Amino acid sequence: MSNGGSAIRGSRVGAGPMGEADRGYQAARVERNYYCSGGHSTKRAFAANVEEAEIPEQLDCPNCGLPAGQDKDNPPVIAKHEPYKTHLAYVKERRTDDEAKELLEEAVSAVRERRVRLAEAAGTSE
Predict the structure, then answer these.
(1) In the chain, where are the structural domains located?
(2) β-pairing verdict for 67-69 and 41-47
């Protein structure tokens, strides 16, 4: 008895011979290897018509985030790892103590004026 099997058993709908003619032609490429100080290697492909100067010397390693360069023996290293800074630390870098006091006084006086106006408006509406 025939089991009704198909000659293309194990194939999926739309499957067929795959080749350059079916999916288009691949553009010419240039491949570069990048190495990070963490020991990772990454291969990137660039279009062959891109000028050498446009290919980046460094990029971020997709594994660890460290900078990666094209020289395997001398991968780039981070000169100094800066710790996380708070918003206040950035503000203190931009302002001197005198400027900070002046800005604080302006802000406090603006709040006081607004409170006085609100109090007067609340007193007159009753």
Answers:
(1) 27-69, 87-125
(2) unpaired
List residues bridging with 47 in a β-sheet: 29
Written out in words, the top-level CATH class of the domain with range 27-69 is mainly beta
For the stretch 16-52, pLDDT in tens is: 665 556 666 778 999 999 999 989 999 999 999 989 9
SS3 content of the chain, % helix, strand, coil (to 5): 35, 15, 50
SS (H, E, C) 7-62: CCCCCCCCCCCCCHHHHCCCCCEEEEEEEECCCCEEEEEEECCCCHHHCCCEEECC
